[in-house]
Amino acid sequence: xxxxxxxxSIVCPSCGRLVGVRDPECFTCGRRNPGLWGFAPLLxxxxxxxxxxxxxxxxxxxxxxxxxxxxxxxxxxGGLAILSPSGRSLFLFGASGWQPIFVFxxxxxxxxxxxxxxxxxxxxxxxxxxxxxxPVVQEYYGVGRLIIIYTAAxxxxxxxxxxxxxxxxxxxxxxxxxxxxxxxxxxxxxALMVYSKRTGHTAMGQVIWRYVTIFVVxxxxxxxxxNWAHLGGYAGGWLAARIMDPLKEESPTHMLIGLVCLVLFxxxxxxxxxxxxxxxxxx
Length: 283
What we know:
Number of strands: 4
Oligomer: single chain
Low-confidence stretches: none
Structural class: mainly alpha
Largest sheet: 2 strands, antiparallel
CATH class of the largest domain: Mainly Alpha
Order of helices and strands: EEHHEEHHHHHHHHH
CATH architecture of the largest domain: Up-down Bundle
Strand order of the largest sheet: 1-2
Number of domains: 2
Helix content: 55-70%
């Protein structure tokens, strides 16, 4: 059941046509390495992207529900903050920002914060956009590089906003405490910009740039939107995509690094909870 297929034909993950398991690309749609080193049949059973898109969606929804219920007496629901978890709860499960990183030394929250959200509207918007963008990036880069880009964007986004608050630049401050998948979302935008530049798909680049510009403008108008996390996430995703180069084939090394990134995400959440319980109990 879990064996690698080394001979014969498989169904191309992109177009559904038969293709040789060792063929460098699908002769129908042009997808590179459709056999995924013989693991394509296995991956198709769990989802073409290791189930990563569904994993992110499920983890974000689960963490949002848990963060609400763990301190439901103190959750807020005013204005845009509909069903917003308490600050104590978000800290416990891995919120990032200046306070968690520079005051409490919780540096791993640059990863865990990507699975937390500050309200129903916040998580709803992020999940809607990730559902649309993640499959596109996976198609162009492969699942391993998708996970790497997602991770790099989260780390760079939350590290930058925390550092900018540390600098205390008044109206250009970063975040005291921050959460959300939008840093990684902006990293995916950055990856698509790299792809558009490398392949000459200028129309895609124009659309992505328009999205980024609109979100930045909204962030300047609407309070509590973490622009530095967005910009840092974009830079992290852009840089990771640039280094890996979408015109080169995805390698088994990318898949391995992607799996390591998944482990680091899980470990960051566990570390946040285990080491945050004493602070949570103190109120």
